[in-house]
């Protein structure tokens, strides 16, 4: 017999979606252990690759910091090495901030984001309450200094 070299798919009318799903499910069930092992192996390799990349980034960063320290020490002016570097809001700062936020907030619907938002809201509310209490305190002290006992009690 001659083997066909091309895959001939039946027309859509011959194969229903239900039948295709049924066949794929059967294939999955027959090879479930192999598929799960392949998925676990792929995830493990991806994890190892990420760890390797993180380690190489850390090594590169430490080398850059060491070179920067060397340049600062061997710089032309001795006063420049002891002075503090001015903090700037540049592209690198925002890139680092974004990397930190990706770690802190894994997703838009995560519990971490809700906690961060609720803490921020309560801090703002606390600040507003503190301002209001300071205003009331100022009124009390003002009425005491002016000798207006009635305003002090109200």
- SS field, number of helical segments: 6
| Anisotropy-based shape | flat
Please give the alpha-carbon distance between the first and last residues.
106 Å
Low-pLDDT runs of 5+ residues are none
Estimate what percentage of residues fall within beta strands.
Answer: under 5%
Question: What class do helices, strands and sheet pairing give?
Answer: mainly alpha
Number of strands: 0
Task: Please tell me about this protein's structure.
The chain has 154 residues and is mostly helical. The radius of gyration is 33 Å and the shape is flat. The protein contains 6 helices and no strands. Helix content is 75%, strand content 0%.
Task: Label this structure with key terms.
154 residues, mainly alpha
Topology of this structure?
Elements: H1 17-30, H2 32-73, H3 78-82, H4 91-104, H5 111-146, H6 149-153
Write a brief caption for the model.
With 154 residues, the chain is mostly helical. The protein has six helices and no strands.
């Amino acid at each position: 017999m001659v083997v066909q070299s091309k895959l001939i798919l039946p027309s859509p009318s011959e194969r229903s979606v239900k039948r295709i799903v049924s066949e794929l499910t059967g294939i999955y069930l027959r090879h479930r252990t192999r598929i799960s092992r392949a998925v676990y192996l792929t995830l493990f390799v991806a994890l190892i690759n990420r760890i390797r990349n993180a380690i190489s980034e850390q090594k590169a960063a430490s080398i850059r910091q060491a070179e920067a320290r060397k340049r600062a020490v061997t710089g032309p002016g001795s006063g420049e090495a002891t002075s503090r570097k001015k903090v700037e809001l540049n592209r690198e700062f925002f890139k680092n901030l974004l990397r930190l936020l990706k770690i802190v907030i894994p997703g838009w619907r995560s519990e971490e984001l809700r906690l961060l938002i609720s803490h921020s809201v309560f801090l703002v509310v606390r600040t507003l309450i503190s301002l209001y209490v300071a205003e009331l305190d100022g009124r009390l002290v003002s009425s005491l200094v002016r000798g207006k006992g009635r305003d002090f009690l109200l």
